[in-house]
Give the backbone structure.
Amino acid sequence: MAISTIDLTKAVTGILPTTSGGTGVAVYTATYLVVAGGGGGGTYAGGGGGAGGYQTSTISLAIGTTYTATVGSGGATANPGTQGTNSVFSTITSTGGGGGAAGGGAQGVATSGGSGGGGGSTVGATATGAAGTSGQGFAGGNSGFSSGSYPSAGGGGASAVGGSPANSSSAGGNGGAGSASSITGTSTYYAGGGGGFAVTTRGTGGIGGGGNGANEAPTNATSGTANTGGGGGGGKDQGGGSGAGGSGVVIISVPTANYTGTTTGSPTVTTSGSNTILTFTSSGTYTA
């Protein structure tokens, strides 16, 4: 079969797909960002929720194969906060963020996840933050007890552990910082941890969509930002007022020369340079 001028140009410039491992299956390389849902903040002088797991790299897509993108939801506020749900693309699974601990009399422990939830203020002991998942996020911070202040810890983020306030501190721990991605063509932070509660100065959410903690002003905590995987802020010691985790996101960047346009789930489709970017804020599929 004759090779067209267009096909020859693609071959010279390296745009044509290659075959995978001698199997004869044509593949091309795409870049992905998979962020899970963030964890919910704990109540009763609660710790901040951990950010959803953050993973980004390249993947080979086989032409004609349909790949599913599953976008995780954020965790709810509770004693402690609940874990966010996983986000998935192909074989890549990012783990939902851990819930923030409940402090005071509730005594709910933080839970682990993509990033771990922060410890709640606990009388007479140190409340330990929960672990993150290697390669996806960091642990939540630890907190203790300070009469009149009740500082709680921040949830972990994609690039840093949650803040651990000293017993004498009047401020809650800040959420761990998220990580920046330029997969869409614009540098954007994702997966920041939620801030912890304190009576006077609440902890702030980590960059990347983390929610702020509550204080006794009274100011309720804020939820993690939707489609960033940010953790929710820790709630007040009177119960309630904590923030839910932010939902996750799945973003795929493919060479425009290979883009098929065959999708379900209504992803947002944009271009950047020579790539076409699919942003899934709810679940769907892409056929390579």
